[in-house]
Amino acid sequence: MNESAANAASGRTAPEGLSVLGGVWAVLRFEWVKLLGRRITWVPFLVLAAVITLITIVFHYLEFKTTITFFRTASMNFDSKNDFVNGYYMTAHAMLPVFRMLIPIFVAVASGLMVAGEAEGGTLRACLIRPLPRSGLLLGKFAILCGYALALSVFAIALLLACGIACFGTGDLYTINVVFQNGEGGASMVPAAETADRFVLAALFATMGMAVLAALALLISSLANTAAMAYVLTLSIYFAVLTLRMMPFLDWLYPYLFVTHMMRWQQCFYEHVKVGEIYVSLVHLGAYLIAFLSAAMVLFKERDIQS
Amino acid sequence: MPLSEPLLETRGLTKVFRRRFFGSGSKHLVAVDNLELTVYRGDVFGFLGPNGAGKSTTIRMALGLIHPTQGSVHIAGRDLADGTRAALAKVGAFVERPAFYPYLTGRKNLEIFAGLSGGVSVRELDEALDRVGLSKRADDKVAVYSHGMKQRLGIAACLLPRPELMILDEPTDGLDPHGIREVRELLLSLARDDGLTVFLSSHFLGEVENLCNRAAIMDHGQTILQGALDELEREHRRLRVETGRPAEAAEFLRGKLGLEPRLVDGQRPALYFALKGARAEDVNALLVQAGFAVRALTPEPAWLERIFLERTTSKESNVARKAEA
Question: Which of A232, A270, A295, B24 has the least CB density, counted as fewest CB within 10 Å?
């Protein structure tokens, strides 16, 4: 009996291919299962918990004498750390290394595993021999990666707030402006009542920055043959650009670097938020995201899968 | 037997790999060269060739993993390059070896891969698992599966959802003899009972002889032989005939059937010749009728292997070809 006859007898018909949106949906349905099933997915949460615990212990024992001196130069006279160190202060300051160093590393690794890692393991070709547009596959993975970055951001901020408030209570948020990269002198004070909004805004903005990094990581991951190659390349590019951003004599270059705009979330903790600059950064981040993602889709579509 | 409609066709399929990065830019490797291949509906098609002959590249092009430099692949009349990839909805396949997420169960893996084709019902998934004999181990993680179980899970993945064509790259590779037999029986059953068209590449010539009705041999990126196995056998299989008066018998066969017998002298002199479309029983009858006493008539046991070895180059040659490029 041939297949047509067999199908006719059993009422079976061969399915049709998926559209791009159908492909995105198909990937979304299962990509999170794959992500959550991998042990390495959970490692960043453990690392964040360990680092945040360490930060809390350090904040507990540190006397902040240098910080008090800094505040004095900005006409804020504090007698001891108890006058300004609270849960909000700890969270805002700990977000700097967490969002500049840790979460970018975690996002780059997750992205490397999602495409190049699957190419290395052979599962990418098993996915690509399905009637699924490659762009749909990549967009679905990008969406899950953004969700993962958001989960890491929310987890980090929530745990920082929980530990900080439990150990140091609440109060107004004091920050030294120059620490938060606005290039201005002085200090800022955000009233306690406004801090919740500021943290939500900062978390969303920082996650947008991570989405841009995720798009860059996917672009590299879609061209690399191994996960290690993908995340080493991504992190090399990220830290190279971050290094450029820290060189004072290259200040003319800052507006064109994506990390400048990725770090703009820090301005959410200024006394007076510069809304105009934030919009400019959002537009830049959007443009970078579209550029990286479009390049990833075009190159991935044209790529020969030989692994 | 009349041929049914073509299910998989390659037309002028060519793949040239260019040297990347620091290569000279002028040298390149023609992995597949103007390949014309036709697999008809209902075929069990064997795809043979030494390592480096271009089999895997061909299979990858047939599945949309590698973009052809020239030519096209049509599945059920649909061009694979039409942009929709809908042609792949009719195909179940694995390339090189079936790959799975080891930290997930066999069932979840099948759900994921079938989901990327639009999804299947729980019943269909259970049927596929049952078909390959993995129902009892479906909820174990793939990490604990044996090689044979992974191979069978790979075939189950190919069955979801409802393919018309299965493309399998070395489906029995690395299996023990029991595993090989199980997979062969499964493939035969899928072809015979379910009417699936099967395209399989293999290094085992005996496997192709036993399983397939049609075959192609590839070398240096080109097909050097393609057709129905029984026709190829009639054309190329040699016969060894022990008879009295062998020199006269040779002359008789040359004149009567246009055959070209070669006299092999030894302890027991015999004639050795390709059948060229004649049937062994007819040769026997003619010799007997002409008064030649036929003492033994032995069809060549490994005719496909002989052709393969005669007409293809060694792995080293193909690898050297790649290295030169």
Answer: B24
**Per-residue confidence at B3, pLDDT binned at 50, 70, 90?**
low
CA A164, CA A59: separation in Å to the nearest integer?
Answer: 9
Q: Let me know if residue A259 belongs to a domain.
A: yes
Give the residue from chain B lying closest to A118, CA to CA: B101
* CA dist., res. A202 & res. A92, Å (int): 9
Q: What is the rounded average pLDDT of the residues A180-207?
A: 86
The two beta strands, B91-94 and B165-169, are parallel
How far apart are the C-alpha atoms of B12 and B34, rounded to whole Å?
4
Chain B CB within 8 Å of residue A50 CB: no
Per the structure, the complete domain to which residue A108 belongs is given by 22-302
| Rounded CA separation A258/A242 (Å) | 9
Could you report the per-residue pLDDT of A68-84, keeping only the tens digit for each?
998 898 888 898 999 99
Span B183-199, average pLDDT: 90
Complex confidence, ipTM? 0.83
Architecture of domain B238-299: 2-Layer Sandwich (3.30)
Q: Which two tokens stand for residue B282?
A: 């007819």
Supply the CATH classification number for the domain B6-232. Answer: 3.40.50.300
Is A79 an 8 Å CB contact of chain B? Answer: no
Domain count, chain A: 1
- Looking at residue A5, what is its pLDDT? 42
Q: Are strands A187-190 and A173-176 parallel, antiparallel or unpaired?
A: antiparallel
pLDDT higher than 60, residue B17:
yes
Q: Is B14 on the interface with A (CB under 8 A)?
A: no
| Contact between residue B15 and residue B73 where contact means Cβ atoms under 8 Å apart | no
Query: Which amino acid is present at B29?
Result: L
